[in-house]
Write a structure and sequence with these properties.
The protein is an alpha+beta fold. About 35% of the residues lie in helices and about 15% in strands. It has six helices and seven strands; from the N terminus they run E-E-E-E-E-H-E-E-H-H-H-H-H. The strands form two sheets. A five-stranded antiparallel β-sheet has the order 3-4-5-7-6. It starts with 10 loop residues before the first strand and ends with a helix.
Length: about 200
């Protein structure tokens, strides 16, 4: 359970995601990803479950994109990234696998992937979040928790390494090895990110 759980459970489409939430605004929330493509890959969603951008009200669009802007900047700093990808797949034909508007924020490092590989990964069958939520069994994928296992350290030690500019260029696992993460792993990452974002705001 996150340190400050919302008064009512929130859903990513039909999937309960309260333990994955690390940031919440009046109209939006941010969650850690069940199957991150790279360490630090998060999702920002409107609280109201709607499938397409054109279904959002103007105040929801404003809140969503201000949240994407704020968290994109924070994630770039936390992961010592050289840039970020921000992507929205709007509709099934565009690769959207969960019928709930969501923006992907993915921290990037120079030469971390071959050119345009991130777009193939976003559209891959392995990035299908709807199926992943249905298969959630726990496992290992690139994430802050995965950083811990790769480095044999706890989150605070990983944080120290990130602060010093270490641990920033990691290769994502092959698609076949990317399986949904456990609730515990996602909750730990959400709590860690919530702390890191609060530190940036001080």
């Amino acid at each position: 359970m996150p340190p400050h759980p919302p008064l009512t459970p929130l859903y990513f489409s039909k999937f309960p995601i309260t333990s994955q939430i690390f940031h919440r605004t009046p109209l939006s929330f941010a969650i850690v990803n069940l199957k991150p493509l790279l360490p630090g890959h998060i999702l920002v969603c409107p609280q109201r479950v709607v499938p397409r951008i054109h279904d959002l009200h103007p105040d929801e669009i404003t809140d969503l994109f201000l949240t994407v802007q704020k968290l994109g900047s924070a994630i770039e700093k936390i992961y010592k990234a050289d840039g970020i990808n921000i992507a929205i797949q709007d509709g099934a034909a565009a690769g959207q696998s969960v019928p709930h508007v969501h923006a992907h924020i993915i921290p990037r490092h120079t030469n971390d992937l071959p050119e345009d590989e991130i777009y193939r990964l976003l559209e891959s069958d392995e990035a299908n979040l709807a199926r992943a939520h249905g298969e959630m069994k726990g496992g290992n994928t690139p994430s802050t928790g995965q950083l811990v296992r790769w480095l044999g350290k706890d989150l605070d030690q990983v944080d120290e390494g990130l602060r010093k500019g270490k641990n920033k260029r990691l290769v994502p696992k092959p698609d076949a090895e990317r399986v949904p993460r456990s609730e515990k792993e996602m909750r730990e990452e959400a709590e860690w990110l919530e702390r890191k974002i609060k530190e940036l705001e001080m």
